[in-house]
Amino acid sequence: MLFPGHAIHTHTLVVVFVIYAVVVSASIGPARPLKRITNPSTLALEILPRRPNTHEPRSFSSRSPVLRHSDTFRLTLSAFDQTYHLHLRPNDHLIHPAARVNYYHTTADGLTVLDRTEPLLRENVKVYWGEVVPEEESPSRMREDAAGALPRPSQQRTLGWARIIVHDQGDITQGTPPIYEGAFSVQGQIHHIMTKDNYLRHKHEFDSPITVFQDEPDSPLIIFRDSDLMSILEEHTLRTGIPPDLSEPLQPPRTCGHDSLSYNTDPNLNPSLRQDNTSPWYDSLGVFNPFSFIKRDDVAGGNATTNFINNIGQSAGCPLSQKVLYMGVAADCAYTAIYGTTSNATTQILNNWNMASSLYKTTFNVSFGIVELQVHNATCPTIADPENPWNVDCTGPANLTLNDRLSAFSEWRGNRTNDGVGLWHLMSGCPTGSEVGIAWLSTLCQQEATGDAPNIVSGTAVSTAGRTEWQVVSHEIGHNFGAICTTGCNSTSSCCPSSANQCDAGGQFVMNPTTAASETTFSPCSLGNICSLMQGNTGWKTNTSCLVAPNPSQKVISLQMCGNGIVEAGEDCDPGPGTNSTCCDSSTCKFTSGSVCDPANSQCCTDSCQFAPSTQVCRLAKDATCDTPEFCMGNNATCPPDVFAPNGKSCGSKGSACASGQCTSPSLQCQQLGASMNLQEACPAQNDKSCLVSCQDPTAANQCITLQTQLVDGSPCGYAGTCMGGNCKAGSLIATAEAWYTRNLTISVPVTVAAGIVFVFLLGLTLLCIVRSCRGRRNDRLRFAEPALKDQKPERIRSWVRPVAEIPSVLQPGSSFSRGQAPSMSRSGSLASRDTHGRSNSGGPVPPLPFSGTARVVAQSQKFWVDPSPWNGPPR
């Protein structure tokens, strides 16, 4: 959509430039006055071709010129003699699938009652974020955006970030330009875009007035840069008209406004302020610690000298993958009164969180999502409601300071049931003096309330309305994450220094105590501050249980609310907000008389509110090979479950396979989605489990382009995995191993060969050991069976003729006769077989066999045998 260019007019408030030094307020205060504003000219709002989306309603045309919440587009505008190209894509995490808005009003007796509850539907919130791209890079970036490619910072040059909420798309036929708000940066210079109405709501006495020019009387927007803010010196001169006293030195703010709360400064109350006093094993006395001899400056209730100088620039501990922090936001009556209506207040809150969320996403990989809004009308109660003690006017009997309001809001938050909300934030219209925000330190995910009034602590913060209130919101949420301020540092103060060699950050970053220019990024020390607390290496570990992974296929949590377009328990039908139906009573979500179904919620329902016949197709086949159509049952309004061919079934050439009823492949999806970039082949991602379409870059070898679109459910991912709902589900162990082997042949083949060689070697070694073991056992058996007289010549022992009952005395050893020849002896019984061993015997006597020691032992062990040594003498 193109719009005619408008003349750019700048109104400048001339001030006197002098040098002045002043003590700056020690709390986070309002922004300085503006000396220059101008009107931007919207040159074009170009919606890129839409990709297929199964979640879009059937009635929505993909060629519709109406901007939708899910669109990607380029916004081209001009201001300050420059043309800017903002490439924007939807912020899908800002609205929780079950988000709702509770609107309250004040009764005559001062009580706050719930007026109505409405769903906060994602399609009704047009919030976007992206980058500012140089003009020469914009055409190629448009082609990538059309394909849904994720930004590649290493491949393209960008000028800065962009965050926009679109209120009205405009109408080119009527000549009305779009209405939007937000901010973008160009080479570090922040540009803020506001509607005229919002600018006038927050305009201070010395802010530049809006000038209406004749050639552009109805310009709805104004734009200004951070450099258009007055300096402290200019503001002082303008307010007083007196030149400054140059003898006073410039002193930066020493502390944040949150330092006035004892919980935020006293380590006895807040464990996140306690230092880890443990020393490594090699330095038990701490002599090698360069900070071990620094004197502690225990002031303001004993605050710790925490400065995170050792963690500057370190992101270890912060999430490595995208996380979402779901929050609740409340707006008191004074805040709504500033914006006029509850609808305007709601829109402003969404704008604030869109910009703050993008900042935290790019810094800490954490996005913000809103799950509930509590918006009170502009009429403040005369007496504080005990149920909502924080919802009171800035003045009156309650007379709550910002600190008191924080304590009351914390108590209210603690009394709520476990709602799963990580942080609650109160938007108020009641600053206290120059203090515009306050928060409890390191209370992320803390749902319960502790302490006593006026110091009741929970995961809460308070910000007040202002020209750039999103910066205040970002600052206070930073305290909830554990960040301390970045200005007024010295070697002993509780502060985050600019660097290891420079203490004061000079008011350049988000955690600066006062709102000023360039407060749109976190300092390297704040990065290390928050991430080190998440890691827990400082003695305290931040509770991150409420940081959850975004789930693109997350089911909508039941709101139990008629009018949200979701048929819930107890409802027959629900046509949605502001929709009339002849079949459904939109006020009760019940069928009208005679109706049995509603075609707005049921596919098998006719326009006459009756069940469709069984011949009616309720779901067409996606593919003739992989899917079949489903027909209505005829007796109910529900279409039968989708039945299709198994995922992975071959259905065509080039690796095409069935996936959720479609015949497709990763390469085919690259061709369908990346036609604008001439993408043809899928990237051979070996172990990619992201389930995002990843294609080979046709202009650069070995480069991949990852698209924002998910692979079709049932497509392959990782090693033998399958994509389902954006998640890669692993296959069987055998299939995973097989896939790894076939996709890593350069590794698997050498490893297999080496393993085979080792196996053969071990097998041969084992066989050799077995053979040697067998031989050794046989030799042992032979050695064990060898006779003691194997080397002696065999001789038969002479036997006696008959047995002798006892040996005569004359034959006893030692007698004279015993030294003579021994008489022959015999045994009873036949010994032929024993004596001859089967060989013939001459019958004559056999010479006695010489006996060895071993033989003697054997002989003595035999019954009826006599030791021959007394007769034969010792053996030879």
UniProtKB/TrEMBL annotation:
Look up the domain of life of the source: Eukaryota
Annotated transmembrane regions: 12-31, 751-771
Q: Which UniProt keywords apply?
A: Disulfide bond, Membrane, Transmembrane, Transmembrane helix
Domain named Disintegrin: which ranges? Answer: 559-647
| Entry's Gene Ontology BP terms | proteolysis
Q: What GO MF annotations does this protein's record show? A: metalloendopeptidase activity
Regions of compositional bias (Polar residues) in chain numbering: 812-843
Q: Active site annotated at which positions?
A: 476
Q: Enumerate the InterPro entries for this protein.
A: Disintegrin_dom, Disintegrin_dom_sf, MetalloPept_cat_dom_sf, Peptidase_M12B, Peptidase_M12B_N
Annotated function? Probable zinc protease.
This chain's protein is named: Disintegrin and metalloproteinase domain-containing protein B
